[in-house]
Amino acid sequence: MYLMRILGTLLCFFPILSVLLELQRPLWCILLLAANAFLWPTIAFLRARKAHLPLQIEHQNLVIDAGAGGLWIALMAVNPLPSVVIATILLTDRLSAGGFVLMRKAALALLAVFMLTWIALGTPFDVLVTQRTMFATLPLIGIYMLALSVLTDSIAVKLRIKSRELERIAMMDPLLDIANRRLLEKRIQYELDKLRTTPGHSSLMFIDIDNFKEVNDRFGHKVGDALLVAVSKILHIATRKTDTPARLGGDEFVILLPDTPQEEAHAVATRIMDAAAVMTVVQEYAFKCTLSIGIASALPGMNDVTEWLKAADDALYQAKRLGKNQIYSH
Ligand SMILES: Nc1nc2c(ncn2[C@@H]2O[C@H](COP(=O)(O)OP(=O)(O)OP(=O)(O)O)[C@@H](O)[C@H]2O)c(=O)[nH]1
């Protein structure tokens, strides 16, 4: 904002100066214009920087800018070219900085200061735009508009990046670098839609760490968390890029395996169990980590996310019921 204000007041200085000289305005007018062009940007910057609420003060500064614009338009006796350009720039700039609310405040400030000064001066009109004033106004039109577009574009790019990042965070588990239920359900729905048009074999795997409560109770929550991280890493390593490992909550994980028949899913589950059995997180505490895994393949005509998840959860329940540390396929 500081640089944009310096650029704006500098580019406004020349056309306004040109008209003020043509109208033979007194010296104090020229000095006031110089102060507005060369001192005000720094004063505005310091005011905002020292403020408790910098954004609020910057919005005030932007309204003051508009008021100053009204003053100069009146002192230029409404010379059409610089007056229209300055008013347009002031209002569009405020619109992009603070929306319609800020633009309305700026328009009111501009109009109020203009009317007071213009009436006090006897409502003068200077309709003649000299060549010098025209050439002095051109850089304001060209350079400032270009700078404003560059600034608006860079803000839009930053916002796009931020919004993508927020979207990613909303789809990921906060503790593990793994999808959460929201993303998983989206992918499952996508897979079911795909299977409806292109029949194939896809599987869903429900994984639960056996006796996880005991890990927390015996070794503490931190070790429990470390175990969850280790298991999620194993799920990443054991799966393909097209699979979606996700955490449903607690010690429950699910993997969506597109284009994977039940036997292949079983082989993946075996790999996961083998890796969990030899992992080191809890081994040093003399605890052997085992998993129970339930697998359910998508059935023809299945089009409900909950139905497929429930089938895999039922399979997991069977694995637990049969004594844990095993794989059960529906
Ligand atoms: N460390 C840690 N623990 C969690 C987290 N979320 C849930 N838990 C705990 O995970 C445990 C889940 O236990 P259960 O799945 O109900 O039981 P379990 O001991 O695994 O028993 P089985 O599933 O029958 O083998 C509970 O004690 C929860 O408090 C977490 O983010 N970190």
Question: TL;DR?
Answer:
It catalyses: 2 GTP = 3',3'-c-di-GMP + 2 diphosphate. This protein has helices at residues 2-22, 27-38, 40-50, 54-75, 80-120, 131-171, 181-197, 212-219, 221-238, 262-277, 305-321, and strands at residues 203-209, 244-249, 252-257, 291-297, 327-329.
Strand order of the largest sheet: 2-3-1-4-5
Q: State the domain count.
A: 2
Give the C-alpha Rg. 34 Å
Termini separation comes to: 63 Å
Strand residue content: 5-15%
- Summed up, the helix count is 11
Note poorly predicted spans: none
Which structural class matches the secondary elements?
A: alpha+beta
Structure description:
The protein is of the alpha+beta class and 330 residues long. The protein has two domains: 2-168; 181-329, 2-Layer Sandwich (Alpha-Beta Plaits), CATH 3.30.70.270. Helix content is 68%, strand content 9%. It has eleven helices and five strands. The chain has helices spanning 2-22, 27-38, 40-50, 54-75, 80-120, 131-171, 181-197, 212-219, 221-238, 262-277, 305-321, and strands at 203-209, 244-249, 252-257, 291-297, 327-329. It has a five-stranded mixed β-sheet with strand order 2-3-1-4-5, sandwiched between helices. A hairpin with a 2-residue loop joins β2 (244-249) and β3 (252-257). α3 runs antiparallel to α4. The longest helix has 41 residues, at 80-120. It is elongated. It starts with a helix and ends with a strand. 34% of the residues are buried. The mean pLDDT is 93. Bound molecules: guanosine-5'-triphosphate. Guanosine-5'-triphosphate binds next to β1, α8 and α9. It catalyses: 2 GTP = 3',3'-c-di-GMP + 2 diphosphate. It comes from Kosakonia oryzae.
